[in-house]
Amino acid sequence: MPEAVFVQPHYDDIALSCGGTAAQLAVDHSPLIVTVCGGLPGEQLTEFARQQHEWWQLDDAAVVAERRWEDECAARELGASVRTLSLDYLDAIYRRAEYASEEALFGRLVDADLELVGELAGRLEDLGEPLVMPLAVGNHVDHQWVFLAAWELARRGREVWLYADLPYALQPGALEDRLGQLALGAAIERELSAGDFERRWRAIECYRSQLPVLFRSIDDPRERFEDFARRGGQLCERFWRFDADVEETRA
C-alpha cells in the first residue's frame, strides 16, 4: 500500500492503531494521514465539552491548535515523508448537542450524521488508494461515522482496508465482538520490526493531552500494546479488506 491514505476520526487514531505500518511505508513513500474531525469549535460549548477540555488540561480556545501540534509531532516521529491533512468536520462533542454524555458518545449516531456519510465519502475518495479506515471497535460515534464512510467508499469500488481501533480493541472480547458483526474475510498481517514499533510508540507519546484519559484504566500501556501486536508471536498490525458486499449484524 505505497500510496496509502490513513483516515483517522481524531488526532491520534492512526498512531494508536496502525502507526507501525505508516512508519514502515514512510521509509520509501509518502503516506497521507487524514483527520476527519479537525474543525474548530465555536465559543458555545456544552458542559460536557468543557469537561473534556479539563480532563485534557487544555484551554477552550487553544484545544484544536494543541491537538494539531500533537499530530504534527506524531507525524514527524512516524517519518519525515508523512503528510497530514485535516478536514473541517467537528468532533462529536462540538458537532451535536445530542452527544453530551459518555453514554451518548458511545451510543447511536444521530440522523443528521447519517445524512453526511455520503458527503464525507465524497471528500475522501479522491485522495488516493488504498484507504485505511477504522473498524469502529468500541462504538465511538465518530468512529462509527467514519466506518460508514468506509462502507460507502467500498460500494463505490474504492480499495478500503480496516484497522482495529486502539485502545478500544484492548478490552477483552471487543475486537472479536466487532468482527462478529461483520462478514469480513481473514485479516492480513503486516509484520513490524522493533524499530517500526518504537517509532509508533514515540508517535503515540506525542499526544500528551489525550493519554491520561485514554490510558486511565490501562496498566503499563506500552506492554499492553506490544502484547496486542504480538498475538501471533511476531510484531504485526492486522488489516481487513472491506468489500462492497459486506453485511453487518447487531445482536
Kindly summarize this structure in a few lines.
With 251 residues, this protein is of the alpha/beta class. The protein has twelve helices and seven strands.
Enter the CATH topology name.
Answer: Rossmann fold
Number of strands: 7
Give the full name of the CATH homologous superfamily.
Answer: LmbE-like
CATH secondary-structure class: Alpha Beta
What is the arithmetic mean of pLDDT? 94
Number of helices: 12
- Which class best fits the helix and strand makeup? alpha/beta
Report, as a whole number of angstroms, the end-to-end distance: 34 Å
Please give the order of strands in the largest beta sheet: 3-2-1-4-5-7-6
Helix content: 40-55%
- The helix/strand series, from N terminus to C terminus, equals EHEHHEHHHHEHEHEHHHE
Sum up the structure in keywords:
251 residues, alpha/beta, Rossmann fold, 7 strands, 42% helix, globular
Structure characterization notes:
This protein has 12 helices and 7 strands. With 251 residues, it is of the alpha/beta class. The protein has one domain: Rossmann fold (3-Layer(aba) Sandwich), CATH 3.40.50.10320. Strand 1, helix 1 and strand 2 (32-35) form a beta-alpha-beta unit. Helix 1 runs parallel beside helix 3 (63-78). The longest helix is centred in the N-terminal third of the chain and has 16 residues, at 63-78. The protein is globular. The mean pLDDT is 94.
